[in-house]
Amino acid sequence: MTDIRDGLVGAIGETPLLRLARASAATGCEILGKAEFLNPGGSIKDRAALGIIRDAEQRGWLRPGGLIVEGTAGNTGIGLALIGRALGYRSLIVMPETQSQEKRDMLRLAGAELELTPAVPYVNPDNYVRVAQRRAAERAASEPNGAIWANQFDNLANREAHRATTGPEIWRQTGGRIDAFTCAVGTGGTLAGVGRALKERRPEVRIVLADPHGSALYSYFAEGHLRAEGNSVVEGIGQGRITRNLDHAAIDDQERIGDDEALAVLFDLAEHEGLLLGGSSGINVAAAIRVARKLGPGHTVVTVLCDHGTRYQSKLFNPAFLRQKGLPVPAWLEGEPPH
Ligand code: PMP
């Protein structure tokens, strides 16, 4: 017997499911986090990137040496660029300029051509998704091996990757003992795909949206209309429209989580459990705690630890940034960095 995976692509998925000790103790529930930060690209988006690439290959849209174009908050781009290098494709990544410097650096390291856009809404033609769509059309005409637009928001290969891998892994890892699943939405691929996989196996599993301020989804699922209020420093999540990936998703409940609550959870996980995670993981675990409190002791709530905290060292783990945003700075993060 051997246990060998095929390079970078083989390292995607089959991530561990971690018991979060303090959240579990505080609620009397099992609070479990799917450790997606352990994917080779450092985030959950490796799965969607691989699913989109494999789907485009099967349809004959992506030819050897072709260019993959995508608009992304960063993580999908990192996944596409790294997988592209492993499989013989190039990448052009369009990202809002507000995303962390660490993501820019990583995209360069991954060999992506990088274009930054102003952080403007989807209705504005300079929005990163709209720019990516245009660039893909332009480059499809000029590239010798063609170009595709990955289109993660509306490409259902994204949701399917989670229905086929993330969801079944969670089911198997919990032995089917799962009462609720909660996570935030960027494209909706994770929530809708995992939700579908779990409901197929046990319809009673509660699927709960975790939504940051500044996103219009909480009000959509709570009241039936899209309305955004406030804002958030958390990257990669929040949405102003119902993407195709999110369309018809079976969602039982929704929690709106503020940055204060999410960061308190994030810093607690870092300080007491050694888990350094990105902001969306803080939103997700905070929501899991709320769901567990509603269900009462003895239940199992699963959520997603989406990406690694090192990707946000200049922001969420930087006292100057936190102070500038009026957010609390944990004592262990204060003080001069060592030289
Ligand atoms: N967390 C992070 C850090 C992300 O980058 C993303 C994707 N943009 C998400 C969560 C949301 O995942 P999904 O696109 O599957 O909704």
TrEMBL record:
Pfam entry (one): PALP
Key word Metal-binding present: no
One GO molecular-function entry: cysteine synthase activity
Cofactors required: pyridoxal 5'-phosphate
Alphabetical keyword list: Pyridoxal phosphate, Transferase
InterPro entries, per database record: Cys_Synth/Cystath_Beta-Synth (IPR050214), P-phosphate_BS (IPR001216), Ser/Thr_deHydtase_PyrdxlP-BS (IPR000634), TrpB-like_PALP (IPR001926), TrpB-like_PALP_sf (IPR036052)
Transferase recorded as keyword: yes
Domain Tryptophan synthase beta chain-like PALP: 11-307
Protein name: Cysteine synthase A
Source organism (scientific name): Phaeospirillum tilakii
